[in-house]
Every structure is written in structure tokens, then in C-alpha cells.
């Protein structure tokens, strides 16, 4: 299960970074919370936290999210980044030879090169 939410107020992480949006991803082992320092980021989170239970995650974050609350999001497709809003993966990761900083996106059932700096 994945859900995302926007914070009522940006949460300062340090002097220059603020959390604007969060995503939770529940697995059999526990729950992950992904933090996004850029409100428009769709590719990957800026940081992540692990919680042993979803209840622990909710206890820490529910009071900080805005009035829209948690918004359901489909689980990632197999092989895709868990923290990405788009179906993307690190190029070569599926073959055990990741090319960090290079991406692929699932489009029409095929993984193709993805360049987030370019309009698709």
C-alpha cells in the first residue's frame, strides 16, 4: 500500500531543506516514509525513514498533514522505484549493473530511457 500527503506547513530539515510532501509505503517488514524537499519532485524522494508499524508512522505524521489527508496511490510496478510517483527505475538495476543517475520509465509495457530534464 502507498499513500501520499502534503504537509500543512513545510517542515525544516536544516537551514536550506524543507519537507513539503510525504509518501508512505507499507511492506510485510514495516512501513517506509519518503520525504520530498521539492514540492514538484516526482522521480525520487529526498530522504526516507523506516517504521516498524504503520500505526507508529501515523502517530508521528498524521497531525502534520493538510486537510486532504492521505491520498491513495497505486503500488509501484515490479522493478520500479518505491518512492517515485512515476513508473521509473535506475537503468541497468534489473541486470545487476545499475547506472546511477540514468533512468528508465515504463511506457506502453516497455522500459525506455527517461530523461526527467526533458519534456516527454
How would you characterize the overall build of this protein?
The chain starts with a strand and ends in a 6-residue tail after the last strand. It is built from 1 helix and 8 strands. The chain has one helix spanning 54-61, and strands spanning 2-12, 18-27, 30-36, 47-51, 71-73, 88-90, 103-107, 110-114. With 120 residues, the protein is mostly beta strands. The chain has a 5-stranded antiparallel sheet. The longest helix is centred in the middle third of the chain and has 8 residues, at 54-61. Strand 7 and strand 8 form a beta hairpin. It is globular, with a radius of gyration of 15 Å.
Major β-sheet, in short? 5 strands, antiparallel
The topology string of helices and strands comes to EEEEHEEEE
> What is the alpha-carbon Rg in Å?
15 Å
Strand content: 35-45%
Q: What's the number of extended β-strand segments?
A: 8
The rounded distance between the terminal residues' Cα atoms is 28 Å
Provide the structure class. Answer: mainly beta
Q: Give the averaged pLDDT, no decimals.
A: 92
Query: How large is the count of helical segments?
Result: 1
Approximate shape: globular
Strands of the widest sheet, in order across it, are 4-3-2-1-5
Which regions are unreliable across 5 or more consecutive residues at pLDDT < 50?
none
Question: In percent, how helical is the residue content?
Answer: under 10%
Fold blueprint:
Layout: E1 2-12, E2 18-27, E3 30-36, E4 47-51, H1 54-61, E5 71-73, E6 88-90, E7 103-107, E8 110-114
Antiparallel strand pairs: 1-2, 1-5, 2-3, 3-4, 6-7, 7-8
